[in-house]
Amino acid sequence: MGRIGLLYFLAGVFGGFLCSPHVEAASDQSSLFPEKLVHLDFKGAPLSIAYMESVFPLLRAMGASGLLVEYEDMFPYSGALRNLTARNHFSPDDIKRLLDAADSNNLTVIPLVQTFGHLEFVLKLPDYITMREDPENPQALCPSFSLSNIIVRDMLRQVAHLHKDRISHIHIGSDEVFVIGECSRCKARMFANNWTTDDLFLDHVHTITAFTRSLNLQPIMWDDMFRKIDIDVLRTKNLTKDTDIMLWSYRNVGEGEADLIEKYSQANFAGIWVASAFKGVAGPSEQMPQYTLHLNNNIDWLKVASSLENKVKLRGIALTGWSRFDHFGSLCELFPVGIPVLALCLKHLSTGSHDARALEDIRELLRCNRPIPLASPEDAALMWCGYPGAMTFVAVQRLDQFERKRLSIESTSYYKGFLTPMNLKHNFSSPALVRDAVVKLPAAMDLLDTVLENIQHLKNVCDQFTLKEWIETYWQPQKDWGQALQTVAEKLLYHKTFPRRPLYN
Ligand SMILES: *[C@@H]1O[C@H](CO)[C@@H](O)[C@H](O)[C@H]1NC(C)=O
Ligand SMILES: *[C@@H]1O[C@H](CO)[C@@H](O)[C@H](O)[C@H]1NC(C)=O
Ligand SMILES: *[C@@H]1O[C@H](CO)[C@@H](O)[C@H](O)[C@H]1NC(C)=O
Ligand SMILES: *[C@@H]1O[C@H](CO)[C@@H](O)[C@H](O)[C@H]1NC(C)=O
Ligand SMILES: *[C@@H]1O[C@H](CO)[C@@H](O)[C@H](O)[C@H]1NC(C)=O
């Protein structure tokens, strides 16, 4: 969508906005990132197709221009690759529906296929153990083994085929290749060619990018493995001119990133993108949205883009929303929980502002009872919204309220001093203080039951498996704690008289 289109669009969604004095700034800010991609990470938390159909119009209205789709094991790999798939993988028809829904909302789609590191979903399998660089670690593949190249090419070919004529770019990942140049095959090759591990890395990604281009797709790669590679080394390779690079940093973005962008520009990468985050980076088991962290991250990226405006033209920004830290990790913030913070970040990227007026626009768009509590982050009053999947956000807020109640129970001196294993073992405690220790427990447990009711909606947002996992990870341990505490209190309160000291023979 061009600048004029965008202005009309904003005028439609945020009526009256054009009358504000921010108009010039608004269009200028927006052009710093022509593309604003929202990352959909299906790693063990696949959004259902019906949910995506319902939420894509909202993503468009929030200011997204496209989607970076990380299928991982949800892609319907077939033939020799059929064992790579999760048992609940999408069907080819699901992929078509996803693409149709993206099309009808003017969202470009860029699939992301890992081709080097973070191939846990492939390398964990018995079939592919020989492809590991380190036999003990299913993180990165050996780039010097013929099977690795056969598998990776087949993956790219299959993804390209199911997106035929509907995509122009493909993201080939290649971040965080933690193990490289360690196996005997790689060592022999490095010795024979007088290569460093950087040379080995560049050789593999060059093979992949060349293959990607043979499929008529422009490759994009994560940048972290390039950060330390000397610019003269990059210049001598033919990799950069045919490849887009995507710089990622999810906090403390500043001069370092600006310098890297200039370096990549001088190394003649075909296109330069950046990536911020809206969820999935604060901690591997965080559930509540982190408004300030992600807003600041996106504000910083906009500043960097603005400082380089006359030197480097960026292709766009991807707002990443990680489902897990890696394939084996626990679930991070759920997608619908990230929607308000995503709206906030997109708003700032489009208009350069997140003032009270902007927060009010977001409140209206997401149909919430109150604006995002940016000014008072400690404010824990419930935020109810009407966007697709918002009930899971209510569940998570209530779980957070429960956790506060649990902390307040656990921090009393009654709890700390009168319900210890010693008290329990000897049936020996002060009945009044035991009662005080658990006086707030029934209300807390009622709240926890409401969390369980509210989170059932996750079945529609994702599927029953994600729901089961969330309950097992985040709800059940709280339930177990509450029940155990109740049992201890009941056992202690059963006794009306107490023995003479000492309690020991
Ligand atoms: C897939 O896994 C099954 C069961 O482990 C195995 O028998 C089969 O050979 C594998 N297929 C391929 C194509 O690797
Ligand atoms: C998508 O873009 C086309 C042409 O640019 C426009 O006609 C159409 O209204 C847009 N649709 C949406 C949902 O924004
Ligand atoms: C191997 O490469 C290094 C630079 O990486 C160079 O200094 C050295 O001369 C090379 N050795 C041979 C035998 O080519
Ligand atoms: C780079 O490409 C040029 C021309 O296409 C070719 O002559 C040269 O050998 C290539 N260099 C490498 C390192 O592949
Ligand atoms: C504590 O009470 C329970 C019954 O509630 C009893 O079975 C147990 O033997 C008692 N323990 C001691 C150390 O008296």
Give a verbal description of the structure.
The chain is built from 20 helices and ten strands. The protein has 505 residues and is α/β, with parallel strands linked by helices. It folds into two domains: 331 residues, Glycosidases (TIM Barrel); 104 residues. The protein has an eight-stranded parallel sheet. It starts with a helix and ends in an 11-residue tail after the last helix. Bound molecules: 2-acetamido-2-deoxy-beta-D-glucopyranose (NAG) (5 copies). The site of one 2-acetamido-2-deoxy-beta-D-glucopyranose (NAG) has 4 residues, from loops. The site of one 2-acetamido-2-deoxy-beta-D-glucopyranose has 4 residues, from helix 20. This is beta-N-acetylhexosaminidase.
> What's the mean pLDDT score?
94
Q: Architecture of the largest domain, CATH level 2?
A: Alpha-Beta Barrel
Q: What letter string, H or E per element, gives the SSE order?
A: HHEHEHEHEEHEHHEHEHEHEHHHHHHHHH
Briefly, what CATH class of the largest domain?
Alpha Beta
Q: Report the CATH superfamily of the largest domain.
A: Glycosidases
Number of strands: 10
* Amino-to-carboxy terminus distance: 83 Å
Dominant shape: globular
Sheet with most strands: strand arrangement: 3-2-1-10-9-8-7-6
In CATH terms, what is the fold-level topology of the largest domain? TIM Barrel
**Largest sheet entry:** 8 strands, parallel
Enzyme class: hydrolase
Family: Belongs to the glycosyl hydrolase 20 family.
Catalytic activity: Hydrolysis of terminal non-reducing N-acetyl-D-hexosamine residues in N-acetyl-beta-D-hexosaminides
Pfam families: Glyco_hydro_20
